[in-house]
Amino acid sequence: MPQVGRGRSTGRRGSCAGRKAASACFVLGLMAACASPHDYKFPVEKPDQAYLDHETAVKDCAFVDEQGRQANLAKGLYPEYDVGNHILEASEQGGVNYGVPGDAEDDFNLNFGRIFNCYRKFRDWAGPPPRTTEPPRQAFKQVLIYFNGGLNPASVVRAQARSQVPQMLQDGYYPVFLVWPTGPIDTYLEQITFVRNGVRRSNPQLLRAPLYLAGDIGQGLSRAPVTYLDRLVRAVAARNPFDNEDKREFLLTPDICLDEQAAPAAEPCKKEQTDVDRFGIENCEVTADKNLVTGKDPDTRPGLTLKDLPYYGLFATRFVSAPLVDAFGTTMWENMVRRTRTTIRRPIEYDINLVDVLESDSNGLTRDEKIAHIEREKQDFPNGLGAFAKFFTMLQSCAAAKTPPAGSEAAAEDICPDKLVGPARESWRDIDLTVIGHSMGTIVMNELIPLHPDLPYRNLVFMAAAASVRDTTRAMSPVVIEANNGREKTAPLRFYNLMLHPENDANELVALGAAPSGSLLAWVDEMYENPKTAIDRTMGKWRNLRATRHVFPKDARRNMLLRVFNWASDWERERLHPPSCPDGDAGGAAAPPPVRFRPPTTHSGFNDDEARFWCPAFWGADKVRWWGPGTEWQAQVCARPPEE
Prior knowledge:
Helix content is 37%, strand content 8%. The chain is of the alpha/beta class. The protein is globular and about 70 Å long.
């Protein structure tokens, strides 16, 4: 398989922006501590010559011309690959940011057309005649859409794409990053200067902003006793070294043992297993009552370690920072949730007067012409004018099984641009779609996917989901159930929910221990959302899902797999192999090479290059047997040998 390029991050781990620590940087430095995020730096590698010689490697898609190569080298980027054709970026108000960040919003069709056509050209390149050194055409049926989480400036997610797109291509996916800006500083400033009760004002309310700032400080101080008590109760329970009822709430072993007994095990494969380091329902068929997997000895930890020292040494600092994280973080969270909504429906849909501000650069159109354009778009895109809603609506139209006959009523409603009809459209009609969301990206998925149920979804993956159990039940259960009706002989839709070990969720160190401990999901449940009932808590914590997973309908649960990662992050323990006997066939083909990745132990760790979160083994798909067909595609992705 050609080496598309394995970019490695040299700056992401050192940047406070783009991680939950960004929130702590914000509150501790009072909007001045967070420096600009570092961009990724790609090692200069010579790409496989087959890419450069192929006639379809055009300038507009996978590769840039010589001038572009030199420009990329000067910026420290990978010289050959242009990942801009894999990114659709939403602006703060839900429109499309095209090209250089900060440019005026551009024609959506132009951005969509680049992504759409470049997939066709890339797939044509990967197709016949077969060559042993190149990926099979079938592998690139797998299209992956990724939604970033909160507390990530768009520049950080673009840097993540530059690092991971080449790896995803090499692993057999064609990725599209749907990026939306969730940086901590700009979301807070917008909330206190422009937004009031869900309405964004046309002009900044400069006199009101200081009052909101003072109010946040006052609210944080007044809530400080409750904040301290909540942090203390969780810390005592999670860090308790003794085995008692409170401590067991943060352990996995009792749950796994119960899950093993919940339903009879499926007939084991007759072939000898290649890896016995398994736990939970390894090699068992997923059922509605038995759908939890983890690794062996998930609770094993070495006791007190060096990374625990900042927690105890910076207690006084957290005493000061906790009220600020509560107050400022709540205001930031409100606006980040609002921005998840604007990627679906833009504010301009509710207040046409915003056309003067949000559409300030519209190629010289008059105000009336701009308003008429917005009204036409409302007709074409009834599910919303937000960049992500338009992308999904356009994709659903262009990937339809058949092109409507000319002159028909369906043709009149077909919004796929004429220039995309033909080979480009044909290449999208047999895709398998994997959608992955991290943290707040799952909130976007809960909004988008029910509005576009006809897309060919194969895998829906939640990673450390900030979406609530209630919203996920309402949004995903009907989609999963309906998609699997009558699919016994085709490709079923699977839903994966990936979670940190409960103790890691509770004890994650933020800002080197200077901010309150706990993952972003702990902050959301305890400070930002004020859940009314258990199912209003976040979907991405096992402590929440342990008690509430039964609220999902049985027909949905049999297509759901819940994975909880171990406390420890160990390369060797997580060398996972696809099943020796796919689909219960004891005579199945030999397993492909092991997939090697580092399991996450922090909320932001799901996005790390080393996690390879796009691989089915990361989701736990290789650890179980599903009903029906549909697992053979796993051998076509992420099959490259492990790196030593």
